[in-house]
Amino acid sequence: MLRRSITAIALAVGVAIAPQAARAAGEYDTPPPANLSFQGFFGTFDRAAAQRGLQVYRQVCANCHGLRLVAFRNLRALGLTEEQVAAIAAEYQIVDGPNDEGQMFERPGRASDRFPSPFPNERAARAANNGAYPPDLSVMTKARHYGANYIRALLTGFQDPPEGVEIGEGMHYNRYFPGRQIAMANVLFDDMMEFADGTPATVEQMARDVTTFLAWAAEPEMEQRRQMGIRVVLFLLILGGLTYAMKRRVWADVKH
Question: 145, 116 in Cβ contact below 8 A?
Answer without folding.
Answer: no
